[in-house]
From TrEMBL, chains A, B, C, D:
This is Cyclic nucleotide-binding domain-containing protein. It holds the Pfam family cNMP_binding. SUPFAM superfamilies: cAMP-binding domain-like (SSF51206), Voltage-gated potassium channels (SSF81324). Belongs to the potassium channel family. SMART domains: cNMP. Residues 250-364 form the Cyclic nucleotide-binding domain. PANTHER family: POTASSIUM VOLTAGE-GATED CHANNEL PROTEIN SHAB, VOLTAGE-GATED POTASSIUM CHANNEL. It comes from Bradyrhizobium rifense. Gene3D superfamilies: 1.10.287.70, Jelly Rolls.
């Protein structure tokens, strides 16, 4: 499995050696996986097996190459061990080695290439908010585990009961406990294929109980996750926002305690350059503070620039709630969004802030006369 | 497809050109869709195809007509572009053009008319609380998306695994990855048609894992939505109520900070004229403040009128909780409802308010002696 | 259908004319419904049709009788109209008239008696916490309705799509939109009977989308209900507790504002006489205040009586958390339960209360030396 | 069924007579249950029936033995009655007696041994967080029960309706109300086996309603559990943490009210000896207080020991959030974890604490220069 080493390509990959997923990688994953699927579709494969094979090999080469580049990159930084033991490192290794190893071990090609499904795992680190989900699962692992144990216990007891009740009537489907286990899982998850169904009156009563407890198990599960998630969301938002808040002079006036409050009220928004934030004439239900970057207010006569620390969109919250002008970013910006509700609560708690905003609003109205 | 332009009709529609749905439109949607359904029911259609065809055409004409009227209306207001790019505008256009275009493109009529199902989309903007749901979906889109990606990844890995495990035993159902994908979706959503079922022991173990993670995915989903929804509900109620609170002199005494509290305690209620709010002898668990409109208290001897800013229903919260008299609106009114629980908390926090209410209650009792 | 009027029976029923369900009524409902079920079980019915018929008639007579008694009772109190228009009144009327009317109208007896299933409705008013559930459904009706509308819209669009995609391949199952609607509902609720299953690739893609949005719809639904329920639970508990709190001298010291806090911390418990509340040697994680009734502490040497306003079980919260003695009610009692967590928060916020409790605890320890 | 009494074994078990599950017991449960499963797998059993029988008997002997030992142990402590009436005692008794009794009563061996499934119940008390789940179920039992009653009522009404609508078309599946009940449960739980499916238009409408209310019932259920669970989690954590907090001098400064706050912010973590808590170079989002035990900070030059009451990991929260050194426990320890979010809120509310931490941080930085 020879592999040419074009410097250009090397540079290109080296440049992104550190990052989790490059655009190229996304393309490779998609192409590779689609080809793998086609490989299993006999008609499609017969029609275009040359192409499919070529694409699969191309993707494989790419991933092997990417992996090697990363290994070298990490080795140079002396983080080789850390990388290889990291989940990202393992996924890269799997993606690069699984198929070749299988082929070398003499697996039937069509089967070996199925392993290229592992390439999709490369996408995982890129999933938005995955960290958040993981934290919930970790923190709530205790209760979640106990629900799982309960689940398994119900499955087990139920399947033995059904085996006892149904084995004589349906020896082929309830002929052993493992067979009954299959039924129990299918039933307790309320999937209900219908391939295995109790027919004796008693068997059906047990089944009914299993279904109902299925709802219960499920409800507990959801309840736990909902609880954990609510907490996590608040936390995540707080962390994102905290840094920025202190940077906005407007809030500097507040004591640290008040800032902690305010942080819970704000939402952070990351925007690329030249993005429209406010559309003239639209309903307005929040105001914005510029934590980083800059925006341009598109007023009738002129264009006004606002930089870090400035705020805008307050007009709509004070009087009529119609946006008076278009506003869009001029560079990559981080904005803090203050919702109408929190705006009012905040103004109520801190009259001084209310005055600052009113004053500014007045000034602007006069100016734009 | 010529279209007569009766001035009367024009007026009628023009009058409602701005509104989303007129009564006529609701009728048209219902009639049109029902006819479309009948069109597909061969026996019904054979029996009354003349009528069905006529109704379908009538509805189509109506929608085309409505669309044109709106176009003209918007054009006059110079909001043509805004309207045509708005979702409402697109739905109107689809409703008016889909079927004709299909017919013109020579689609078989019975098929072309199926497109009239798009008419139901006109109902969407009228759904109560839809805005609220959309906000939840937008704000929680991050986590929801990541759950979706996890969902897809599980589906994909599972289907490849099953394809590998089952293809030899059941070539017709697990003969390719796409076929296995179908099984995976049906299973992970716990739908479980039972048309495709793994039979090998390993295949069933994988399936069991898929079902259980199905519950997990679902639980996460619900957890996220529940979290988002809780926040949204509070916000929505606050916005509805805030404006009105400040208009009620009773609360004016409170400082702005306290008003923010109170707003969280109140619920807004919009009522048409001549609606009974309180029925004599019923259990009372809340009191009312009149933010707009007026009510009439039906006392033994006389009828007492209460106008904006007044409150009523406090008696039931102070002593015995039986309503003492019928109360009903005399005109369209907006009421603020203070629940028994919040009433007590509020009275506890603001003794002055408690006194005001007690005094008023006493006065009324004397008066009505 | 003549009906003897034994004074004894009349008294018996009259005594309970006001109440929703008497023990007798529960028996009648159970017996009646079971007999109705047996009526449909041919073997069972052939075996004992005489008995079944007799029981059914007996129950019917009972319900007719109960209804008449209530009518008279209400008429005397001049609340006849209120009663007949109330849900309880309607259910009573249905239970009494449905079967006879059906028989009179010449319905086949076996069918007519099926209507006796309506008797189960009499149980509804007795369901614990139903009021709470209803309030949730009412308050959240807005969002719930909009989810329902979305549900129906998805069902409708999906079924038309499937009809279009599958009608040629499976004319018998997807031969008309109504047929496809059946499939859509079965799928969107993730029930998945498997009697109607799409087979075309496109049809399956649509189906997959329907299943996934099924999870979404369901998630929203649950989210809304969870939100509403959380609020309702707090409210319900507050109302149950508030009255009692003010009656306990221990809390009288606190200002009204503090009492509102405390009320949120306490849980009310209604107990019959001679019920064991605390078992010696058990783990203790809460203390009790007697709002009404009395308890007996079973100490080594003697039995100590505690009456209204007294508290007990605090020892376990102060030092070692093992219960030191058995405590049981001597008459019907209402207790306020203060959980360990809230106990600590409360003591922290109100040192004076902490002292009162410590003092009392010390006194008791000395006394019981 | 004679049973030898080796002193060694006796000691071994006696040592653990008090505990719920010993390692040996876990092994016995696993082995026993697996053998029982094999017993039902004819091929497997024929292959190794000698082994299977032997293992089953061995496990049985173990459990009988364990039970007797516990009985004696409890008898000596005079807690025999308490033990035998406790759930643990009942489970032990069942595990020891069920199979023998069945065999004595002359049940067919293969059937009698099925009762060994009861052995899994011994695992229950060991499930983490089960107490928490049980508390939720107990506290929310009211609403949960009413949902259950509603569930049963819907099932019942629906099945009678379907029986009436479908009995003529499908006498074999809807031929009696009990048969229809089976359908109703399968449908309302959205399991949907598909073995019984309504075919008449009206029957399908009823079925659709049942499915939709199935979602509703389920939603309520989940909502209730989610609500209860949220409360329980907070409580559980508070109890775990409270004791420890007061032991940490750092917090002693705070008044009791503030301590109650802090307790809600902290999370308790129990760690075995020689466990790595902080890995150098990792992201840091929390700091630790040592409630019990001791840790070792692995600094470039030296190893620093920290004992009870000390805190560490604050550096990452103050400046750059990279961990500066490895930290691991030297003995079994209980740590209090303060999350970044709560850290900031806390520092904001209590500037004095902030100073203490800053001072300490400075001191350490200088020291480690």
């Amino acid at each position: 499995m020879s592999k040419p080493m074009f410097p250009a390509l090397a540079q290109f990959v080296a440049a992104t050696a550190g990052r989790n997923m490059t655009k190229a990688a996304y393309v490779a994953v998609t192409v590779g996986v689609v080809s793998m699927v086609l490989l299993t579709l006999d008609p499609a494969y017969e029609a275009a097996h040359r192409w499919v094979d070529f694409l699969l090999w191309a993707c494989l080469v790419y991933f092997v190459f990417e992996w090697l580049v990363r290994l070298r990159h990490m080795a140079r930084q002396g983080r080789l061990g850390l990388y290889m033991s990291s989940s990202a490192g393992l996924v890269d290794a799997l993606g690069a080695l699984a198929v070749p190893v299988a082929l070398v071990l003499g697996a039937e090609p069509k089967t070996a290439w199925l392993l290229s499904v592992l390439w999709v795992l490369k996408v995982v680190p890129g999933i938005p908010g995955l960290r958040q989900l993981r934290r919930v699962l970790v923190l709530e692992s205790g209760p979640l585990l106990s629900v799982l144990v309960i689940f398994l216990m119900v499955v087990f007891l139920a399947s033995v009961a059904e085996y006892f009740l149904e084995r004589d009537v349906q020896p082929q489907t309830f002929g052993s406990v493992p067979a009954a286990l299959w039924w129990a899982v299918v039933t307790l998850t309320t999937t209900g294929y219908g391939d295995v169904v109790p027919v004796t009156p008693l068997g059906r009563m047990v089944a009914a109980l299993v279904m109902i407890s299925g709802l219960g198990v499920f409800g507990l599960w959801t309840g736990i996750l909902a609880t954990g998630f609510a907490a996590e969301t608040r936390r995540d938002n707080f962390l994102k926002t905290w840094e920025s808040v202190s940077k906005v002079p407007f809030f500097a006036a507040l004591g640290p305690a008040a800032i902690a409050d305010v942080t819970h009220m704000l939402r952070t928004m990351e925007l690329p350059a030249r993005t429209m934030i406010i559309r003239k004439g639209a309903q307005g239900d929040c105001m914005y503070f510029i934590a980083a970057g800059a925006v341009e207010v598109d007023l009738p006569g002129k264009k006004v620039q606002l930089g870090e620390g400035a705020f805008f969109g307050e007009m709509a919250l004070l009087g009529n709630n119609m946006r008076g002008a278009n506003v869009s970013t001029t560079k990559v910006s981080r904005l803090l969004v203050l919702d109408l509700v929190d705006f009012r609560v905040l103004m109520a708690r801190h009259p001084d802030l209310a005055e600052t905003i009113d004053a500014e609003a007045k000034r602007r109205t006069l100016e734009n006369k």
